[in-house]
C-alpha cells in the first residue's frame, strides 16, 4: 500500500495536468466517468494516502488500497484501467484502485493539519488527538489516518525504532519527552522516505523494517502482528521500551 511520500511523488509527476481539460475519460470505475469529459482540472492534491483531483463543483478521490498503481503518459499492458484520463499534454491511468466522485470541494472535507507530508501539519493537534484514547497501542495510533494521515506500516516501524518505543506501548503511558521525540521522527522520516524513494534507495536504508538483527544491540529483531489491526511490526525488545 503506497504511503504518503509515494503519493507526493505522484503529485509531482502529474502537476503538468493542472489547468488542462480532460479530453477523454475511460475505465471501469463505478462512477459517472462521462462527467469528467471536457472538465478542467482545477487542482491536484494529496492527503495522506488519497490522491485528489479537483474539478468545478466536485472532486475525484483515488485510494490505492493494497495493490493499486498508476502510470503517467503510458498504459500498462494487460492491466485493466480503473480510471484513465487523456489530456492534450499526456495521460494519467490508475489500476486496481478505489475511485470515488465526491460532490463539493476538497477544502470542505479534508483537514490538512493531519497530513504528515503537508506544510500545515500540526504537532499539537496530533498530541491532543492521542490523548483521547490513552489506552490504545501506539502501533494502532500511528496508523490512524485521522491523526497521522500518510503513515503506513513501514513508517510506523521505522519511527518507533528511531524513537526507541515498543509498538505495543500504551499511548497514554509514553513519557511526554518520548512522545515529542516520536512526533518529530514522524515528520523527519516521512521526508527521508520521500528523498530515498526518489533515489530508489528506500529499502536498503531501512533500519528495522524486515530486518533480522538490531543494528544497535546486535540482537534478533522481533517480527509480530501487533495492535487491534494485527499489522506486522518489526522491533527490538532490548532498546525499544514498552510503556
List keywords for this structure.
6 helices, N-terminal domain of MutM-like DNA repair proteins, 4-stranded antiparallel beta sheet, alpha+beta, Helicase, Ruva Protein, domain 3, 243 residues
What does the overall shape look like? elongated
Written as H for each helix and E for each strand, in order along the chain, the element string is HEEEEEEEEHHHHHEE
Mean pLDDT comes to: 96
The total count of strands amounts to 10
What structural class results from the helix and strand content? alpha+beta
Strand arrangement, largest sheet? 1-6-7-5
Architecture per CATH nomenclature, i.e. the level-2 architecture of the largest domain: Orthogonal Bundle
Point out poorly predicted stretches.
Answer: none
Q: How would you characterize the largest beta sheet? A: 4 strands, antiparallel
Structural domain count: 2
The radius of gyration is 20 Å
CATH class of the largest domain: Mainly Alpha
Distance between the termini: 29 Å
How many helices? The count is: 6
Q: What helical percentage do the residues reach?
A: 25-40%
Oligomer: single chain
Q: Please name the CATH topology of the largest domain.
A: Helicase, Ruva Protein, domain 3
Q: How big a fraction of the residues is strand?
A: 15-25%
What does this 3D model show about the protein?
With 243 residues, the protein is α+β, with helices and mostly antiparallel strands. It folds into 2 domains: 4-109, N-terminal domain of MutM-like DNA repair proteins (Alpha-Beta Barrel); 113-235, Orthogonal Bundle (Helicase, Ruva Protein, domain 3). It is 27% helix and 22% strand. It contains 6 helices and 10 strands, in the order H-E-E-E-E-E-E-E-E-H-H-H-H-H-E-E. The protein has helices at 4-14, 106-109, 123-132, 138-142, 153-163, 176-199, and strands at 24-26, 43-47, 50-55, 58-63, 69-72, 81-87, 90-95, 98-103, 222-226, 231-235. The strands form 3 sheets. Strands 1-6-7-5 form a 4-stranded antiparallel sheet, with helices on one face. Helix 1 crosses helix 6 and helix 5 packs across helix 6 (176-199). It is elongated, with a radius of gyration of 20 Å. The model has no long low-confidence stretch (mean pLDDT 96).
Amino acid at each position: 500500500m503506497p504511503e504518503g511520500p509515494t503519493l507526493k511523488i505522484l503529485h509531482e509527476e502529474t502537476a503538468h495536468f493542472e489547468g488542462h481539460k480532460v479530453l477523454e475519460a475511460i475505465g471501469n470505475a463505478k462512477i459517472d466517468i462521462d462527467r469528467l469529459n471536457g472538465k478542467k482540472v482545477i487542482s491536484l492534491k494529496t492527503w495522506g494516502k488519497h490522491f485528489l483531483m479537483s474539478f468545478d463543483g466536485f472532486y475525484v478521490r483515488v485510494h490505492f488500497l493494497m495493490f493499486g498503481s498508476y502510470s503517467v503518459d503510458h498504459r500498462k499492458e494487460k492491466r485493466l484501467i480503473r480510471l484513465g484520463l487523456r489530456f492534450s499534454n499526456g495521460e494519467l491511468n490508475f489500476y486496481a484502485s478505489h475511485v470515488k466522485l465526491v460532490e463539493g470541494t476538497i477544502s470542505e472535507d479534508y483537514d490538512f493539519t493531519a497530513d504528515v507530508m503537508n506544510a500545515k501539519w500540526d504537532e499539537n493537534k496530533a498530541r491532543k488527538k492521542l490523548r483521547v484514547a490513552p489506552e490504545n497501542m501506539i502501533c494502532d495510533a500511528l496508523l490512524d489516518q485521522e491523526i497521522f494521515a500518510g503513515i503506513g506500516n513501514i513508517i510506523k516501524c521505522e519511527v518507533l525504532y528511531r524513537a526507541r518505543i515498543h509498538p505495543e506501548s500504551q499511548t497514554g503511558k509514553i513519557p511526554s519527552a518520548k512522545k515529542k521525540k516520536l512526533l518529530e521522527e514522524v515528520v523527519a522520516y516521512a521526508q527521508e522516505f520521500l528523498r530515498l524513494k526518489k533515489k530508489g534507495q528506500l529499502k536498503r536504508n531501512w533500519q528495522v523494517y524486515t530486518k533480522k538483527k538490531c543494528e544497535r544491540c546486535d540482537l534478533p529483531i522481533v517480527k509480530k502482528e501487533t495492535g487491534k489491526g494485527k499489522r506486522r511490526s518489526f522491533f527490538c525488545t532490548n532498546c525499544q521500551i514498552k510503556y
